[in-house]
Amino acid sequence: MRDFVSSRARDIPPSGIRKFFDLLLSMEDVITLGVGEPDFNTPWTVSEAGIYAIEQGHTSYTSNKGLLLLRQLISRDIGKRFGVDYDPEGEILVTSGVSEGLDIALRAIIDPGDEVLVAQPCYVAYAPCATLAGGVSVPVPCDERHHFRLQPDILMERITNKSKALVMNFPNNPTGAVMQKSHLKEIGDIVIDHDLLLISDEVYSALTYEGSHTAIASLEGLRERTITLNGFSKAYSMTGWRVGYLCAPPSLCEAALKIHQYVMLCAPIMAQMAAIEALRNGEEDKNRMVREYLLRRNLFVEGLNRIGLPCHTPEGAFYAFPSVEKTGLDDITFAERLLAEQHVAVVPGSVFGGAGAGYLRCAYAVSREHLIEALKRMEAFIHGL
Amino acid sequence: MDEKDRILLQVLEENARIPLHEIAAMAQLSESEVEERIRELEKKKIIRKFTTVIDWERAGDGEVSAIIDLKVTPERDYGYDRIAERIARFRQVKSLRLMSGVYDLQLHVSAKNMHEIARFVSEQIAPIDHIRETATHIIMKTYKENGNLFYEREEGERLPLTF
Predict the structure, then answer these.
(1) Contact A100/A149 with Cβ under 8 angstroms?
(2) Same domain assignment for residues A276 and A357
(3) Which of A104, A206, A295, B33 has a 20 to 30 Å separation from A268 between CA atoms?
(4) Hey, CA dihedral for A292, A293, A296, A298, is it positive or negative?
(5) Cα of A36 to nearest chain B Cα, Å
(6) How far apart are CA B22 and CA B38, in angstroms?
(7) Beta-carbon separation of B160 and A35 below 8 A
């Protein structure tokens, strides 16, 4: 029999660290800081709206673009929060989470051999999705000296005549880095100068702790060359509902819609109805959760620095990204031994690209009690080295 | 009251026994600043008391609790205050509020048993001047108290590692 797996699928590296994951599953009494999703339940008012939708028999397909009311509310929400206008009729597409949005955005713009610049460290899906779309991903490292922000000069070095798009994600998973308006403007100028398209994953935008989030599409000259991805997962603790959205100028939105209608058809209707409730009545719950993340961040980052794992202050998302350099271990060894010896799970930074080597991603989306216990165990581990 | 005070109040309301250094880290203050602020909040009577939420039913020697609604004729010059302050002094009254709606005062009363509650209402409360009507509702089960759920709930399970 032939090997039926395509070379493209075969060549994609598996996500993360299988061995580590298997060990983790076999252990008890583990405190895991490895989870990239909120620990809060979906606000009850939102869940209740989803349940009601099912009870009322709203179990069908929706329009490919998503429910019009949801698109209208999304348009109003991003208009109010970021000062950027998108037409609910032709510029907003409801997706099955940002994951799908990323996939169809890349497929909508990539021709074979196009280079996709990816700001790293980053979420594990960007490079594989670019590859699957037929493109070539080109990492652009962001380092701690610059608070893990994308640097204009480093970006410039990686641009070639094959460069088509830049993918970036701020507030960032895994570093918690945030790009302020002035930083974004410098990047935006380069994007315009080199006639690039920008794919901006802003799913952590609600989790911005110092000042407010700037949507890069709100900067002059960028709206027409930006696909913004966002969603409900992180802001409203709705990861399992699979609902997000893509905003782009009409021609790009239309191209993404064509792919979306063939591969996804539509996001689940009950999740869309829950998302409507989130936008209507979820603000208070969202603010409460963001405030709790802020307290946890302060508690945890102070603790990391105290126990000898220097950590820059993450201004967004719910990740701390401390350096293990001073311990003399590399990030993978550190994470494996920390798990084996002290039963604390963190993710080695190198999982998120070479630029993450030497760091750990610690998600502080766990209770304060767990954070304090994790710090104790990490301190004991470091002392034992 | 500023943002830091609000953080202090929030974390203390959740857990009055939280270590000082944890509050300090969360509010990004020094420990002595936290102490100073807590003293100040106590002085202003914003912090009324540090207490404990207890599930007495579970403790086994549960008391009987009741909500008692009262219709009260307000007094000239005093409104409801004088009568409310009088009722509030009974040991059995855990909380007392002036309400909008059909009834005026609402009492949360605890006692050893149903009999004691009945006696308290009929002998102590009902005969007070200006009280026109009482309605007693026995609390049968508490599901949530002060923001704390009193029943076990299975948590949804998250994968231990996701990217």
Answers:
(1) no
(2) no
(3) A206
(4) negative
(5) 5
(6) 14
(7) yes
Q: Where are the domains of chain B?
A: 3-43, 62-140
For B26, the closest of A15, A16, A299 (CB atoms) is A299
For the stretch A86-120, pLDDT in tens is 999 999 999 999 999 999 999 999 999 999 999 99
Its domain, for residue A370, covers: 7-42+284-383
- Measured between alpha carbons, how far is A38 from A365 in angstroms, rounded to an integer? 5
CATH code that applies to domain B3-43: 1.10.10.10
Cα A171 to Cα A149: distance, rounded to the nearest angstrom: 10
| Mean pLDDT of the region A22-46 | 92
Pull the structure tokens for residue A301.
């980052």
Q: Which of residues 337-356 of A touch B (CB under 8 A)?
A: 345, 347, 351-352
| Residue A16's pLDDT band (cuts 50, 70, 90) | low
Residue in the structure block whose two tokens are 């028999």: A57
CB neighbours of A332 closer than 8 A, spacing ≥ 6? A17, A348, A350
What's the rounded Cα separation, in Å, for the pair B13 and B7?
Answer: 10
| DSSP secondary structure letter of residue A27 | -
Residues B144 and B162: their CA atoms lie apart, in Å, by 33
b (16+ CB within 10 A) / e for A75-100: bebbeeebebebebebbbbbbbbbbb
pLDDT of residue A292: 96
Q: Taking CB atoms and an 8 Å limit, are B28 and A298 in contact across chains?
A: yes
* pLDDT tens digit sequence for B55-93: 887 887 778 999 999 999 999 999 999 999 999 999 999
Nearest CA in chain A to B4: A295
Q: Give me the pLDDT at residue B150, please.
A: 86
Strand-pairing partners, residue A320, are A362
Q: Does B156 touch chain A (CB under 8 A)?
A: yes
Taking only the tens place, the pLDDT of each residue in A198-218 is: 999 999 999 999 999 999 999
Domain B62-140 has CATH 3.30.70.920: yes
User: Is residue A19's pLDDT more than 90?
Assistant: no
- The answer to the question of residue A2 being in a domain is no
Contact criterion met (CB < 8 Å) for B161 and A303 = no
Tokens of B53: 């939420």
The minimum CA-CA distance between B7 and chain A, rounded to whole Å, is 8
Instruction: Give the separation between CA B87 and CA B93, rounded to whole angstroms.
Output: 8
> pLDDT at residue A14 above 80?
no
Query: Residue range A301-318: average pLDDT?
Result: 97
Tell me the C-alpha distance between A217 and A225, whole Å: 8
Q: Which two tokens stand for residue A367?
A: 């209770």
Q: State the ipTM, two decimals.
A: 0.77
